[in-house]
Automatic annotation (TrEMBL), chain A:
Residues 1-27 form the signal peptide. The keyword Secreted applies. Forms a heteromeric complex with cardiotrophin-like cytokine CRLF1/CLF-1; the CRLF1-CLCF1 complex is a ligand for the ciliary neurotrophic factor receptor/CNTFR. The CRLF1-CLCF1 heterodimer binds SORL1 (via N-terminal ectodomain); within this complex, the interaction is mediated predominantly by the CRLF1 moiety. The tripartite signaling complex formed by CRLF1, CLCF1 and CNTFR also binds SORL1. GO terms for cellular component: CNTFR-CLCF1 complex; CRLF-CLCF1 complex; extracellular space. It is found in: Secreted. It comes from Phyllostomus discolor. It holds the Pfam family PRF. Keywords: Cytokine, Glycoprotein, Secreted, Signal. The keyword Zinc does not apply. This is Cardiotrophin-like cytokine factor 1. GO terms for biological process: cell surface receptor signaling pathway via JAK-STAT; positive regulation of B cell proliferation. In complex with CRLF1, forms a heterodimeric neurotropic cytokine that plays a crucial role during neuronal development. Also stimulates B-cells. Binds to and activates the ILST/gp130 receptor. SUPFAM superfamilies: 4-helical cytokines.
UniProtKB/TrEMBL annotation, chain B:
Keywords: Disulfide bond, Glycoprotein, Membrane, Receptor, Repeat, Signal, Transmembrane, Transmembrane helix. Heterodimer composed of OSMR and IL6ST (type II OSM receptor). Heterodimer with IL31RA to form the IL31 receptor. Residues 1-27 form the signal peptide. Belongs to the type I cytokine receptor family. Type 2 subfamily. It is found in: Membrane. The chain crosses the membrane at residues 736-757. Gene3D superfamilies: Immunoglobulins. This is Oncostatin-M-specific receptor subunit beta. It comes from Phyllostomus discolor (pale spear-nosed bat).
Amino acid sequence: MDLRAGDSWGIIACLCTVLWHLPAVPALNRTGDPGPGPSIQKTYDLTRYLEHQLRTLAGTYLNYLGPPFNEPDFNPPRLGAETLPRATVNLEVWRSLNDKLRLTQNYEAYSHLLCHLRGLNRQAAAAELRRSLAHFCTSLQGLLGSIAGVMAALGYPLPQPLPGAEPAWAPGPAHSDFLQKMDDFWLLKELQTWLWRSAKDFNRLKKKMQPPAAAVTLHLEAHGF
Amino acid sequence: MAPLAALQATFLSALLFLGTDCGKALSEPSQLAPESLKVSINTSQQSLHVQWTVHGLAYDEELNMVFQIQISRMTTFNVIWVENYSTTVAWKQVLHWRWDSELPLECTTHFVRLRGMVVEEAGTPGPRPWSNWTSWEEVDAQKSLGPDWLFVFPEEKLVEEGSNVTICYVSRSHENNVSCSLESAPILGEQLSPNVSVITLNNVSFIRKTGTNFFCQMEQTHTVKGSVLFVSKVLEEPKGLSCETRDFKTLTCTWDPGTDTDLPNYRSQHYMLFEAFSGENKSCEHKDSCVWQVAPGSQETYNFTLVAENFFRKRSVNIAFDLAHRVRPMDPFSMSLKSVSATGATVTWKVHPVRDHFTHLCQVELHGEGKVIQHNVSVEKDGQRPFSELEPAMEYTARARCAAAEHFWKWSGWTGQDFRTLAAAPSEAPDVWRDVKSVLGSCNVTLFWKPLSKSHAHGEILFYNVAVESLHGPSGSKLFSIPAPAGGTEVALDGCSHRILVTANNSVGSSPAAMIVISGDPADKEAEEERVEPTEQGFSVSWKPPLEDVVGYVVDWCDRPEDAPCGLQWRRLGPNSTSAVIRSGAFRPGVRYHFRIYGISPQRRAFLLGKKTGYAQEEVPSDLPQVLVHNLTSHSFTLSWKDYATDSQPGFIRGYRVYLKSQAEQCQPEFQKTVLPDRSVGCQYEINDPEQKTLVMGDLQPESSYEFAVVPYTGAGEGALDAFTKVTMPDERSHVLIRIILPMVAGLVVIAILCYLKSRWMKEMCYPDIPDPYKSSVLSLLKPKEAAPLTIMSVNDCVPDALEVVKKPEGSKTPFPGARKAAPDTARIRPDYIYLLPTESSSGPCICFENLTYDQAAPNSGSCAHVLGPHEVPPSQLGLPTSAESLLKPLEQNYVNTPAEAPAGETTLNYVSQLASPVSGDKDLLPAKPPEPEPELCCEYRMQMALPLGLASPSLNESSNSSPTALLGQEYHG
């Protein structure tokens, strides 16, 4: 390529223009609002923590229910747990979710699951188990607040609250005790799957919110210039 | 066919007749037959609810009837239950009856029918007949089941522990592919119908409060259905029912409910209290207690029945009592102490009023120093009790509790108060002992005393007074005050005869004085230390009573004998004692303790009676002796470990075991064969005398290796056999050789010394640096027959083989004159260099030392003069100046002949040097091909001659390439 003197001046002028506009690039503006990145990271961390916490809690609770619910290969059909939000979704569908929908689904799911979990807490007869469930409910409430914070930072509205404050989860004539135990089993299992999915969701969001690598490179070059 | 038809017609006619007759007979009761039979299912209770009415009753008529009810299962022929139900029936009354099914009603179809009969009453004639059966009423719960493939019934059930439970599953699949489990255990059912199986669980037990899980799985559809059996424990009868009042206002009944039978979803265990005299009852809030309100001033006697009830059982216990006999007063209060002195105090307290004229029996206790003083006091309102004979300055706890004085039932709780009596002067002298060290007529006394016990100190000891009085010197005493909590002091006495008084003092006064007398006499005669064996109780020390009068004995010892201070302890014993068991928590295994026994004279002078030593527990020796080997011969050696300290071992050394190992594994006669810790076989010799610290090992094989170890042993066993020391026995002839070799070596050394001392003479005699023709004896040896005088050999005797004349041009001068330039010395003729030249004829026996440094002072030989000029330094000297110079110096001193010394006729030739040694130059400077070695005979001086220049030139040219000069030049330049 044949560069003439005029071309060199043009490149320098272009670089100067880029440098002039660098402070306006949000990803490079270190002194301003950090954006939703840190809160997404915190939400991700909280999700992983809850995943760990639930592992212990579920073990204790399923032992409390007795066999076959505490057996590792027990996988009953999902009969009475239709009211629970499903975490499993087609991979393509999951990939195609936009940020707003992704966060909304998470928020709604945990709102439902938290209500069901509180019902579980009321039924538990063992005091120690009730304490563990109450502690987990508090942590899950924190996760819900954290997701709400991320949505607010991204400018997304929160979904409408649930029509009923509490789900019909108390044992009644429609539920035999065995079905009730099945529901408890599915609640814990679904919660576990949701936490796993949420970790993936927030990890994806986290990567998406990171500043582009090219801009960083340019920024460093500008400092070295 | 005709007869058959006729028979048939006859049978039917008979039937019709009978039917008509019977119909007439039952026409009247049939008016009271049950009708409108309805059967329903209560699935939660698994019961059939049967209802019907009785037709034919008058408007105001009431009859006692009995109904016989039949229940069939699956088919009407399979009657499983028949029951007579008696009741009073009124006009248009709907009757109800319930039947609880053991088998879940959903499992199969049930049929119900009934008939009725009026119960005969007094005055009515004859029995009434049964009414007709109602038609079978079918109940089929399966019709209402949903569309699922699999059902398990009952869905949940509360049962009592130990009962039997029947479960069934209904499968809508034609294949028998349903498997069921109770908890995790597979369980098989009994087929009731093609799609219904029944499982009976016998004697169910309680597993957990969330129920026992029973579930079935269908393989194709992966359907899981189950039920939860809530197993309740069996309700127990309340135990230990007891009621009491504290204030005549409320009665509190308590009991032990036993096992809790409640389950989270099935809470039914509750308790009721019935009072028979008043007819009142109360539902109890707790499972183990109930509070009953006492009606004021009315009822004195109560008869309570406690009823425990749950879903399955009801149990009751009864108790009757007089209220005044069940009074447990409230705890006393406002306890205080009055008039507290050193030995007395008065305890006061108050009681809660119960009712008028109620007398309390109160128990007052005083606790102090492990003692309890107890008194009972009758109290109506305020209690008071003086205590005397208390210990001064002592902590006491006063406490009181009360009960009903008239009808004792139970004590109230305790109410207490701590207090301390006032201080008083110490009541006893301190226990004082001493350790005396005499130094040149004076004594250093270390006093020790034990702190007074609380019961004797009567208050906090503030200081100790020590008064020292001389027994023989002028009267008067020295007083020392030692602040507490010191346990002793040191006193230096001028002369040993002193009396020492020690008193303990508190804030109130002084204790009696403890007196000891230090005697100047050497009464502590040295006694031999005896061993004392420990027992389980401690060291049992005994002694013989002395002839002198004694007022007691003292045994002292050190708790930490290896430390300083050693923690001196002592124990006082009465005058009649002759033994004592010394025990101490400080005694440790493996430590040697020394006990001294003193008698105390009436003058309080202590004299030593004996010494004992022992170990609380002996241990094996901690270290092994360092064994030395002496007197090693081919057949024996001596072991010695004289430095081994037996007294500092953790046990009394009882002896030694000497272990010997050899390849032959043969033991000497006095040794015993034994297996060593490393499982090898060795020999053992035991020495029972701890003071024998040598051992001669004899009868050993020469040239053999032996390994030995010496291990001491104590009462606890022998020390660790760690390592053996190896000894190799010498050869039998070696000492003979040594006898020969040693003198030889000594002789050689003497010769060497002599040679060294006479080296100069030897050198001159045998190998002078430069043989002096006049002195050399070699020449005389070579030519013994020639007549004297032995002078310079004749030139004619030696035929020159070669002549070398070195020509050195100016330009080839060495560039190191500055470093090696010798000062011009015209007064002395200096040798330049000497070449060692091989003879041309290699077969010739000789080499010739040719001195080319004769200064042929021909004025016309300018080039030669230049070459041989005294100021030129040859290359060899440049290369190795030190060796060359050192070589040249003696030459200059000894062998440079001055012209005056030169013999007549040789004045034209100046003898400079006759270098005879072939090693005169450095080895490095030798040519690559050194001259062939010459026989010794060739060490001869061949010639010193002056050669005309013309004769020398050809030789110079020939040797120019092979001469050392050329090589050196090459080497140098290279």
